[in-house]
Write a structure and sequence with these properties.
Layout: H1 11-20, H2 41-57, H3 73-83, H4 95-98, H5 104-114, E1 124-132, E2 135-142, E3 149-155, H6 169-179, E4 182-187, H7 198-213, E5 219-229, H8 231-245, E6 253-257, H9 268-272, H10 281-291, E7 315-323, H11 327-339, E8 344-353, H12 364-381
Parallel strand pairs: 3-4, 3-5, 5-6, 6-7, 7-8
Antiparallel strand pairs: 1-2, 2-4
Helix pairs in contact: 1-6, 3-5, 6-12, 7-8
Length: 383
């Protein structure tokens, strides 16, 4: 989850974040057809070198806080900078106010400006399509690619309440570059205006739309995967379950990055990371309150994935962070998937927080997690 969509309305800011592979919380593109530079091996090598140099340059200024025992130095530097930006506790705000708060991406941008770190080239063109009233998708195509190409349907985070396509633009672009696949990022309707199960139903409708329309944007309808971060990870897994139950073609793979997988807020990681940043236990309660109609909805298999029937789901990659209330959710889900006979690869990244996945420009573990996700997607889709 990322906790805002305060906008800058400049293409330059959006392209900067896209080049970093970040969750671009505070930038809004002025167009959905930005043309970017074609990817080359030399560009990729330069990007990796720049990221490595940048991560070494980013260091904290003080000791780790009590909640962050074992935090990696680059991650702590991001959290320190975030703390200087004046954000208010999300759980005390309205949804509209929460969307205006400073974010981890703001902190990363500031760190990069302070260190004079250049933005890598970006490598995807975009266009938008309407799936149905209220539900839009943004289609990312690798610049200069020939097809048909595999397609990945991507679901953003935000607790089903906040964030949007622009918020996670950079994360999607980073995975497009690493996989060479087309990505379709879904703007599902959000709470509190649209309660459960609206976001879940919208997400499945978008998946079905991709199956039917992939050929129209140079995609291969037989090679489809799903990816989601946080609430989006919950949605991605739910889409796979709905596809199975409705006897629709299932994704070939699912990547679930620190997914919300249960309604139990007394798990070991909720207890250990109750005061963590940028996500804590109080915020998760706030998200559940905004999206669910009642506590009974929390028992739905689409919310409590760990209690769902997981048999027959696609091969899965589950990624978690040690300093995250949702770590236990992801770990338990990986165990449940394995127990259900689903080929599952799970990795927890130590010393990093929720939202680390999009910070590859400054946090080495983020680059490793993105590489892991991309490798598993390519293995499933490029056969």
């Amino acid at each position: 989850m990322t906790y805002t969509s305060k906008t800058r309305n400049t293409l330059a800011a959006s392209l900067l974040l896209a080049g970093l592979g970040l969750t671009s919380c505070n930038s809004t593109q002025t167009t959905d057809s930005a043309t970017t530079t074609a990817s080359t091996d030399s560009t990729m090598m330069a990007t990796d070198t720049a990221m490595a140099a940048g991560s070494m340059a980013v260091q904290p200024t003080g000791p780790a806080p009590a909640w962050a025992t074992g935090i990696k130095p680059e991650m702590l530097a991001v959290m320190e900078t975030l703390g200087t930006l004046g954000g208010k506790p999300i759980a005390t705000l309205t949804a509209q106010e929460a969307r205006q708060q400073p974010t981890p991406t703001d902190a990363v941008m500031k760190l990069m400006r302070d260190k004079n770190m250049p933005a890598p080239a970006v490598t995807a063109d975009t266009m938008s399509r309407m799936v149905m009233p209220g539900v839009k998708v943004r289609i990312y195509t690798p610049k200069g690619a020939t097809g048909p190409l595999p397609v990945v349907v991507y679901y953003h985070g935000g607790g089903w309440v906040i964030a949007n396509l622009d918020t996670y633009d950079g994360s999607v672009r980073g995975l497009v570059e690493k996989t060479g696949a087309i990505f379709v990022s879904v703007a599902y309707r959000q709470a509190p205006e649209n309660k459960f199960p609206t976001a879940h139903n919208d997400s499945f409708a978008a998946y079905e739309w991709v199956l039917k329309n992939a050929a129209s944007f140079n995609g291969d309808p037989k090679k489809i995967a799903v990816v989601g971060e946080s609430a989006g990870g919950n949605l991605a897994a739910s889409v796979s379950m709905m596809a199975r139950d409705k006897k629709v073609m299932m994704p070939l793979h699912q990547v679930l990055v620190y997914p919300i997988a249960g309604y139990d807020m007394d798990t070991p990681s909720y207890q250990k990371n109750a005061e963590a940043k940028p996500l804590n236990k109080a915020m998760m309660g706030w998200f559940f309150d905004k999206y669910l109609r009642s506590a009974a909805d929390g028992k739905s298999p689409m919310i409590s994935l760990v209690n769902a029937n997981l048999k027959g789901l696609p091969a899965s990659t589950v990624i978690t962070a040690s300093l995250d209330p949702l770590m236990s959710d992801g770990s338990m889900l990986a165990d449940k998937l394995k127990a259900a006979g689903v080929a599952t690869k799970y990795q927890n990244f130590d010393g990093v927080t929720h939202e680390f996945f999009g910070m590859a420009a400054v946090v080495p573990q983020a680059a490793q997690a993105q590489d892991m996700a991309a490798a598993e997607l390519k293995s499933a889709l490029m056969k």
